[in-house]
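Notebook, p. 212. Picked up where the previous page left off. The plan for this session was modest: take the two constructs that came back from the sequencing core last week, fold each one, and keep the raw output in the notebook itself so nobody has to go hunting through shared drives later. Recording the first one now, exactly as returned: residue sequence, then the structure token string.
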Amino acid sequence: MVKLPLVQSANAAFVASQQPLVAVVVGGTFNIGAHTVKCLAATHGKTGNGLRLYILGRKAKAAEEIIAECQKLCPSGQFIFIQVTDLALLKNVDLVCTELVQREEKEAKAKGGIPKIDILLMTQGIARPWDPRNGWCIELPSLLLPQRRLCAKLL
């Protein structure tokens, strides 16, 4: 197994090589997504050359707290929250992709760069509880199809 210090060193080298690093964390206001956002900010705050991080999630209050913490860890970073509703619905995926692309075009233009996404992390769950009566054939598509749509729209 790869040792944690080696992974941390490789991550820091990658972050230092990007100018700026643009990341999108879907489901970034809870659990793994929120932790990843904070880790990116902490790593970038030490060694990065600019960070623009889009946090997509349902919880505005949680996003405010995460962004406040991230700004302490990485004062030069930009942390942009885009509130989403249930991403199991493809129409919501389309709406959030359109908003994200427009925001990134605007931010990149303002900074004299090109719009891009270096990292796309999708940690979102589903907005409704798991119903074992439906089985995987109903719930699994509500997780996988939207993720495929997000990737396709953001390529």
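Okay, moving on. Second construct, recorded in the same format:
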Amino acid sequence: MITGTMTRWRIYTEYVHTRHISGIVSKYFDNYSMFSGIGHYDGEKERCLVIEIITNKERSIE
């Protein structure tokens, strides 16, 4: 059971190198979600990757 104040990070990035990104995120967090989406930039559609982390741990990810 998770108690305390929860913090949510939602990171949007390019849909590239998803295995590498997953490896990096998993070094810092045990629980996270990654899913693809469609973004719009300069009038053009592009694939994007969304990373969502919800935790009660205060942690710097710099």
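Notes on construct two before I forget. The mean pLDDT is 87.
Flagging for discussion at group meeting.
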